[in-house]
Fold these 2 entries.
Entry 1:
Amino acid sequence: RKMSTKLKPKVFVTRRVPEDGINLLRQKCEVTQWDRDEAIPRHEILNGVKGVDGLFCLLTDKIDEEVLSTAGENLRVVGTMSVGYDHVDLSACRKRGIPVGYTPDVLTSATAELTMALLLTVSRRIQEGVTAVKDGSWGTWAPLWLCGQGLEGATVGVVGLGRIGFAVAQRLKPFGVSKILYTGQSEKASSAQLPAEYVTFDKLLNDSDFVIGCCALNSKTTGLFNADTFKKMKKNAIFINTSRGGLVNQDDLYTALKNGDILAAGLDVTSPEPLPTSHPLLTLENCVVLPHIGSATLKARNAMSELCARNIVAALYGEPIPCQVK
Ligand code: NDP
Ligand code: DGY
């Protein structure tokens, strides 16, 4: 479709998002928005996308063939305000020649920090401590009460040494870990800087005191952490996941935590989100669940919103997209 010089391209935004992105979009585009903090219902996305040139979406929105075909042939770009893009049907976008923008790097530090915070919360039993202070079960200082596992001298396994995995490994070093292992689809040249050793998934599970899930969710990583993998871990292993809930078979995790196959777990991501308050994992003292707040600093969220908008504007004005999913 030829763009008229007078008409601004239309963009639909699926949520109330930080102003940096919206202001930038408004300068160049005609914006309609689901201007609420709650996730947009499916029928409202389908309504909102009709005839638009660009779509600004979040990880809570499933962008599939139905959304694309409902948008129609004007749609020239999908931008997600996230680095994960497992909610976007890439092959459907590719078939239609629609590029997908995303927001790597700007949230890496924030997510790595939260991963460390969660790891330390679990390993030093902070959730149990805070609860004890509040509910009066804090009796007295006691030599063996709430003793956890330290990072000093530990072997840590990072599953997926990508941007966030690498940033987590960097932050582990000052804690005096003895070894960092990693696994993934390929060995990374950058691992020499840490250093971190490339090993098989099984060796990582077998040798690590801490196992941290930092990889993308895809068909190969779905359910990667299951009864079989938890059994291969050390009995004192602590499992952390800040990637996507789909990596974990949660029933198997519950059983592993209950039976003592592993020591404890910390999850920033679950399946589904929110995790129902009745979920068995929430009954366990050795499991800490956070509400998907890895990138939740104002700085990161502003930057994500702005980068998402820049990706969309660039695509709509025929310029190179700053961050396009390959
Ligand atoms: P990167 O693309 O830089 O890293 C992804 C890593 O996943 C790569 O190292 C890749 O390894 C690995 N990977 C992909 N497929 C497999 C596989 N089959 N087996 C093992 N490893 C695999 O992404 P980021 O580090 O920027 O982000 C990673 C993920 O973190 C995002 O996809 C997102 O889901 C999640 N995330 C969660 C946040 C939160 O709020 N909790 C915040 C931000 C991100 P290789 O290169 O060898 O293929
Ligand atoms: C992402 O960007 O993929 C996170 O899950 C949220 O920031």
Entry 2:
Amino acid sequence: MIPTSTTRAGRPRRVAVLSVHTSPLEQPGTGDAGGMNVYVLQTALRIAQRGTEVEIFTRATSSAAPPVVQAAPGVLVRNVVAGPFEGLDKNELPAQLCAFTAGVLRAEARQEQGYYDLVHSHYWLSGQVGWLARDRWRVPLVHTAHTLARVKNAALAEGDPPEPKVREIGEQQVVDEADRLVANTPAEAEQLVRLYGAEGSRVDTIAPGVDLDRFRPGDRAASRARLGIAPDETVLTFVGRIQPLKAPDVLLRAAAELRARTPGHRLRVLVVGGPSGSGLGQPAALVGLAQSLGITDVVTFLPPQPPAELVHVYRASDVVAVPSHSESFGLVALEAQACGTPVVAADVGGLGVAVADGVTGLLVGSHRTADWADALARLTDAPVLRERLAAAAPGHAAGFSWDRTADALLETYARATMPVRSPAPVRPRSLRQLRRTPGAQPGAQQPG
Ligand code: UDP
């Protein structure tokens, strides 16, 4: 059992949360800032409200960023200088992990001994740092992958480069090393076991949430007026980072087909979000696609919107489309439903959990234009069905709250302090596992 200084029922006093590649204080919906940023901030706020302090370590991406920012009572964001502030792609960050880890360890060394009771890493880059911090501080490591390279690589969009080998290897190491793993959905838990060899007893499935105070049904006409959308327009919306994996092109193609099928229909397509990647990850490429499809007059591009504005986008929409090729959960789908807007989503990853098929939205089993046009038309041509799904959507979303996520994470933290790991695998994969083998020393030869 790992000795910790946890208080009440295994609840840590203070947790170090690692989010190397993206800051929870960034505006999500562009670059590398997306659902993970929202997840890290929203859970930190609620964990702190429950009496556990949270300190989030992230890489400083601006010389203007102060070393420490208080995001809320009990929540600090520590901006660690590791490499140049700007111009580093996520794929270049493995080379900065040593510098980042040094920053994390030094921050801890300035505090009294036993300052952090637990490390929670998000995404594999942070897991690499958490692994060392865990060994150094002798506290448990909880890891959330958010996405998995092997799953992503099996569902790439056309022309999308695969996730690099270095990530697959690094991800495997972190899965091997973590004391507990958090999966967003039962399917992701199964993937951790089947594709990465994690013991099922080490994995907790915890659904992400939605800010139910922010995202709720409201005055649709007022939201439309705010966005300059006419009352009789049929609004189909994409919200998220513009990247091939998110497949906003699928919505544009389907919209073009819908328009060809029912030319009398006043269609409006909203695409909300910023660039994240190359090719169709550039809004300019999407503008080009809209031109070639002949629908530029009905497509409106909006830059990334803060939640206070996004709520009007969801309320103003008839349907929110989530056509992703791969999606570990899909917060946008939950947020739209919480606002009373049905979702048409690709039947991939966590979207089958986020959307209740036939009840609050529709799941589409392919990315073919005709299938998407059919699914969208089922809602836009049949107001009765659309209204039925819209009415059920907020109730479904209410089942997912950040409060529930935070409570479940605190249970995982408590469990991480208990000796629940199954016996070590026959073939040790890591120094830590070697150390667990009686009599073995790091670097010592295993008996043949
Ligand atoms: N988002 C935002 N403004 C935007 C676009 C997206 O705040 O203009 C947020 C959105 O509200 C959601 C997150 O970014 O919380 C995207 O999360 P999701 O799980 O849908 O996708 P991910 O980015 O994790 O792939």
